[in-house]
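User: Fold this; tokens only.

Assistant: Input:
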Amino acid sequence: MNKANHLYEPHLVVCEVSVLPGGEWAPRSYGWSLIQVESGTGYWLQAQSNTALETGAVLVVAGEAQGRIRASQLNGMSLCAFNVVPSRLSGLITLGEQDFFKQAAGRTESAFQILPPENPIAAKMKESGAGRNGEGLLLRLTLLQLFVEAFGKELAQPVPGKESADARERLRDFLQKTPPDALLEISFSELAQMTHCTPRHLSRIFYELVGMSFRDKRAEIRLSHARKLLATSQCKVVEVALESGYKSLSLFNLMFARRFGISPGRWRQKHGLNGGTEPLRTKSRRFAVG
């Protein structure tokens, strides 16, 4: 399927399908399909194999599986299908979990599985009455949970070498989407929890992406804010210090001079509203990360 079209594919949608005796139906989804045989019998056909499907059975299949369902010659089939596109659940599942589903879809042995009617997942799907209860939110959440449960412990297993990469991508995503000032509102430990990695590992990847430590980045943000206030307001230097997060005027003076090579007062004389030069122009920007 053309990747450019996947955004238009059905997602978290429940649909009913009727297959005539001897007829065929091929699930078409960029992601995965959870399909239950509500009535009738048939087969799941692939290039070199076919597997029987009985009433109540559930088929979990990836779009890449390239298979189709054929109804028995004696009777038709009634199917209930639920489509899931993991890549469109970024606010719900992690990058590592998205990668798990992507890799599973590309492996022949895991691109589809058939759960017999007595399987707990198949029984729960039947109890939910997916093909009869419409498009309610609770139904969609139930089916999404059953889809995840179909992968069991395999999904919970960490992918070797992926944990570090996932933490890096979560941090990169946070830095690119969040205004710099937001770093002043969270602690280092809170950021570690958000990125699901240890403080030691976070310290390393933060420096690699930003070019400085978390502490130094916060200091840079405060001093940039202070410089803007000095250039565009009539606040006293002590007020600028407090507004920028410094509880000590002497510490503010020390940090400002260390960073810019000049005291706050002298800097204002050169660049402030009454300093004879154009005020410093600043604009909001995102983090530049490598």
